[in-house]
From TrEMBL:
Gene3D superfamilies, per the entry: ESAT-6-like (1.10.287.1060)
InterPro entries per record: Snf7_fam
Localization, UniProt: Cytoplasm, Cytosol; Late endosome membrane
Protein name: CHM4C protein
Bilayer topology: Peripheral membrane protein
Segments of this protein annotated with the region Disordered: 1-25
One record GO biological process: late endosome to vacuole transport via multivesicular body sorting pathway
PANTHER family: CHARGED MULTIVESICULAR BODY PROTEIN (PTHR22761), CHARGED MULTIVESICULAR BODY PROTEIN 4C (PTHR22761:SF77)
Keyword Transport tagged: yes
Protein family (similarity comment): Belongs to the SNF7 family.
Organism for this UniProt entry: Indicator maculatus
Coiled coil: none
Keyword line: Coiled coil, Cytoplasm, Endosome, Membrane, Protein transport, Transport
Pfam families the UniProt entry points to: Snf7 (PF03357)
């Protein structure tokens, strides 16, 4: 089955059909395949346009009918090329929107996991106990500072010496 017929007939995996739709990765892969196929078709049409233009120049005034036919084919190819350009733009827009949606979903899911982890970490914490602990720490730091100040001051060995 060709890529195009798979795309339009929904030739995806059985797993994606049983879940009710393709995964974002499957959809992105298909959109990329379609983009590649259309890009190849663009290249083909561009070469055909160049050939028809060269043929029209070759026939020039010698065979006006053949030159006009070549120009008409060139015009048809250009019309197809502009349609493919529009289709490619639409597909690129859809692919980017799908990528962004998938990214947003993953970010949201990870934020939910982080919130659950924080909730679990905070389960065993009581604000009153934390407040008491912080007061104890502050008191002990004050005591340590007083001890440090007492040790670092001179012991008075020469302060009382009178000249």
């Amino acid at each position: 089955m060709s890529k195009i017929s798979k795309f339009f007939k929904g030739g995806g995996s059985a797993a994606s059909k049983s879940r009710g739709g393709p995964t974002p990765q499957e959809a992105l892969a298909r959109l990329r395949e379609t983009e590649e196929m259309l890009s190849k078709k663009q290249e083909y049409l561009e070469t055909r346009i160049e050939r028809e233009l060269a043929a029209a120049r070759q026939y020039g005034t010698k065979n006006k009918r053949a030159a006009l036919q070549a120009l008409k084919r060139k015009k048809r190819y250009e019309k197809q090329l502009s349609q493919i350009d529009g289709t490619l733009s639409t597909i690129e827009f859809q692919r980017e929107a799908l990528e962004n949606s998938h990214t947003n979903t993953e970010v949201l899911k990870n934020m939910g996991y982080a919130a659950q982890a924080m909730k679990k970490v905070h389960e065993n914490m009581d604000l009153n106990k934390i407040d008491d602990l912080m007061q104890d720490i502050t008191e002990q730091q004050d005591v340590a500072q007083e001890i440090s100040d007492a040790i670092s001051n001179r012991a008075g060995f020469g302060d009382e010496f009178d000249e």
